[in-house]
């Protein structure tokens, strides 16, 4: 698709889309950026258009604007007119204003101005729309699950919020997986959040499993109930790595993940990575204010010395949101990705994470991230 870097693996059962900031100046209009934003909108609209029975959307920040918003909205409206049952959950902060916290209260992932044309309000005319909140936690998922309970069931997920800045200014990924088994897991997580309207400590508990998707082994887990599972998988693949570790993570504040990264580096595993500079600077300030022990700060210094940083625009109202927004670990032939930042606060959020054990998938992510490292390491 023009304007969107798409790849198919696992016999076509998994499709991966990579997004990166288009144009060097986020403040200036850019025709290529506009084309990429519309390409993502069309990709989502195409996924939606294939629904025949159900569409469940869990999207932290759901505010595509202008022509991109119109294309997504019209695709969903057409499906509703064809009798497809559509449900949407979002975080309350997506109605406007500054968001809660992704790594820690006060750390902004995607600050939100007032919505353009009230996209969620327009959705509510033909879909069930509900906000889902928690105590000091976010409904931070980004996924669509289509036609659950049918052979055509599929999931679209990744790190990407549904906003123009996320599609044109941030580093993100999209994954589409044709798998009724995985769709069942996503449907269960969605149903729990939609039904209760609240994130509980046990939300997502026991909703984890592994499916073969086109021959690739894919494990899914949902937090906060399966936070230990996600961290255990991250530490496990890092601990087993021998040939490569490649990371793109907006922030990394999880102690076990930091320790596993340091240990991999000390074993001599070739390592490359990228993080968002201003966002991680905020984490370090919070650590100092909270008197976090020197071991954690030293672990991050060790990791940061091996990674490159993107100098995004620090948050201020009205600024472009050009964060390095990926959440990816590549370890040998495994890829861990999804909406889950490798942070302490993410453990309490409603998140989803995928562990894909597939060499071709790992090679694609490795190449994409190393290209970003080269771009921002200049």
Radius of gyration: 19 Å
Number of individual domains? 1
**Sheet with the most strands?**
8 strands, mixed
Low-confidence stretches: 96-116
DSSP strand (E) fraction? Answer: 25-35%
For the largest beta sheet, what order do the strands appear in spatially?
A: 1-2-11-9-8-3-5-6
Report the CATH superfamily. Answer: Endonuclease Chain A
CATH fold node name: Endonuclease, Chain A
General shape: globular
How many runs of DSSP E, i.e. beta strands? 20
Average pLDDT across residues? 93
Q: Class in CATH?
A: Alpha Beta
Estimated helix fraction: 25-40%
Distance between the termini: 29 Å
String of helices and strands:
EEHEEHEHEEEEEHEHEEEHEHEHHEEEEH
Number of helices: 10
Report the CATH architecture.
2-Layer Sandwich
Structural class: alpha/beta
In short, what is this structure?
With 378 residues, this protein is of the alpha/beta class.
Outline the structure in words.
With 378 residues, the protein is α/β, with parallel strands linked by helices. The protein has helices at 31-49, 66-81, 119-123, 164-168, 180-196, 227-240, 255-266, 277-289, 294-304, 359-376; strands at 5-9, 14-19, 54-59, 62-63, 85-90, 128-131, 133-134, 142-146, 154-158, 162-163, 172-177, 198-199, 208-213, 216-223, 245-249, 271-276, 308-310, 327-331, 334-338, 351-357. It has one domain (5-376): Endonuclease, Chain A (2-Layer Sandwich), CATH 3.30.870. The protein is 34% helix and 25% strand. The strands form 4 sheets. Strands 1-2-11-9-8-3-5-6 form an 8-stranded mixed sheet, with helices on both faces. Strand 8 and strand 9 form a beta hairpin. 53% of the residues are buried. Mean pLDDT is 93; it is low at 96-116.
């Amino acid at each position: 698709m023009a304007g969107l870097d798409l790849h198919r693996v696992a016999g076509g059962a998994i499709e991966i889309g990579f997004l990166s900031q288009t144009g060097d100046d986020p403040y200036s209009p850019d025709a290529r950026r506009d084309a990429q934003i519309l390409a993502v909108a069309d990709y989502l609209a195409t996924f939606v258009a294939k629904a025949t029975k159900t569409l469940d959307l869990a999207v932290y920040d759901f505010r595509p604007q202008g022509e991109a918003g119109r294309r997504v909205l019209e695709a969903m409206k057409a499906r509703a007119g064809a009798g497809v049952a559509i449900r949407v959950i979002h975080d309350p902060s997506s109605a406007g204003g500054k968001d809660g916290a992704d790594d820690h209260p006060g750390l902004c992932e995607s600050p939100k101005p007032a919505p353009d044309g009230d996209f969620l309000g327009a959705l509510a005319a033909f879909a069930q729309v509900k906000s889902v909140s928690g105590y000091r936690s976010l409904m931070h998922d980004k996924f669509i699950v289509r036609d659950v309970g049918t052979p055509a069931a599929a999931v679209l997920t990744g790190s990407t919020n549904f906003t123009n800045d996320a599609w044109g200014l941030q580093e993100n990924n999209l994954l589409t997986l044709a798998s009724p088994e995985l769709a069942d897991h996503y449907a269960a997580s969605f149903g729990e959040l939609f039904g209760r309207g609240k994130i509980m400590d046990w939300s997502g508990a026991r909703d984890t499993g592994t499916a073969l998707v086109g021959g690739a082994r894919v494990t899914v887990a949902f937090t906060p109930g399966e936070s230990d599972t996600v961290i255990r998988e991250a530490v496990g693949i890092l601990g087993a790595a021998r040939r490569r570790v490649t990371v793109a993570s907006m922030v990394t504040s999880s102690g076990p993940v930091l320790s596993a990264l340091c240990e991999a580096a000390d074993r001599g595993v070739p390592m490359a990575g990228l993080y968002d500079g201003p966002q991680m600077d905020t984490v370090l300030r919070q650590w100092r204010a909270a008197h976090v022990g020197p071991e954690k700060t030293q672990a991050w210094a060790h990791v940061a010395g091996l990674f490159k940083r993107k100098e995004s625009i620090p948050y201020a109202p009205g600024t472009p949101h050009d964060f390095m927004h990926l959440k990816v670990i590549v370890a040998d032939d495994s890829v861990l990705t999804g909406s889950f930042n490798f942070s302490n606060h993410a453990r309490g959020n409603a998140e989803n994470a995928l562990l894909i054990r597939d060499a071709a998938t790992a090679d694609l992510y490795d190449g994409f991230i190393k290209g970003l490292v080269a771009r921002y390491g200049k």
